[in-house]
Amino acid sequence: MSERIEDTMEHHHHHDQHDDGGTGAGAPGADAPVDAQAFWDARYGERQRIWSGSANASLVDEVESVKPGSALDLGCGEGGDSLWLAENGWMVTGVDVSETALARARKESAARGLGEDDVEWLHVDLARDFPSGTFDLVSACFLASNIPLPRAQILRRAAAAVAPGGMLVLVSHASAPSWAGNHHHGPVDFPSPEDELAALDLDEDAWEITTAETRTREATGPDGERATLEDTVVVAQRR
After folding, report:
1. Which of 141, 148, 103 is nearest to 125 (CA)?
2. Rounded distance between C-alpha atoms, residue 154 and residue 156, angstroms
3. Which of 60, 78, 155, 191 is 20 to 30 A from 211, alpha carbon to alpha carbon?
4. Do 51 and 12 meet the contact criterion of CB atoms below 8 Å apart?
5. How confident is the model at residue 182 (pLDDT cuts 50, 70, 90)?
6. How far apart are CA 180 and CA 87, in angstroms?
7. DSSP states along 13-77
8. 96, 92, 90: which is closest to 40 by C-alpha?
9. CA-based torsion, 216, 219, 223, 224: positive or negative
10. Is the dihedral of CA 231, 36, 124, 77 positive or negative?
11. pTM (predicted TM-score)
C-alpha cells in the first residue's frame, strides 16, 4: 500500500497521533498552557486535508481477517482508520480532540454513504476523559502529541475498554523519518515495543500479547524522496 506523505510521518506525527490533547506546559516555544482542542483545530486549519485518507497499513494487516464487531478508534483525526473499519463491517466509534478533524470525518463518512449505525464521531480530550463502554477492538494509531499527553494513562484506559476476547492494537512511530531534520524529539516520542508493553502493564493471566515488534514500511517524503519508516506495533488479545 503506497502512502502519500500526509499519511506518513512528519505530519502524522503531529497528528494522528495527535489525539492526545494535553493541557500542561505549552507547545514548543510557548510558556502558557495550551488548550488541546485549540491546538489541534489550528493544526487542521492549516490545510484542507492533512492525512491521506487511507487506513494505517499495520492496522489493516492486524484486523482484516478478524470477525467484525464494535471498534473504538482513539485519535481518529480525519477518519481514515474509522472509515475503513466501518466499510469492512465494524460498528465504529471514532474519537478525537479536534472538532475541525471530526467535521471532515463526518463529511467523508456521509460521502461514502455510511450512517450513524456504522460510525459515530465523538469529541473527547483523552487527557481528561475517555469514552464509556467496552469494544471488540480498541486501536490507537500514532497517538502522540506536540503538547503534553498522559499517554501511558490513556493506553491503560484503552486496554480496560477491550471486551473479553477482544483486541488492542497500538501503532506508533519507532523512529523519525529521514526528512524530519533536526526537530527535537525526546525518546518518549518513539516508543519501542518494550516501552509500550511497560506502559500498558497488562496482567499476563488476562491477556495474550500476539504482536510486539518494529515493522518497516515504504513512504514518500515531502520532496518526493523515498524512505523507509519504522513503526512499533503491539497487539494484545484479552482472554
Report:
1. 148
2. 5
3. 78
4. yes
5. low
6. 33
7. HHTBTBT----SS-STT--S---HHHHHHHHHHTSS--S-SPPPHHHHHHHTTSPP-EEEEET-T
8. 96
9. positive
10. negative
11. 0.81
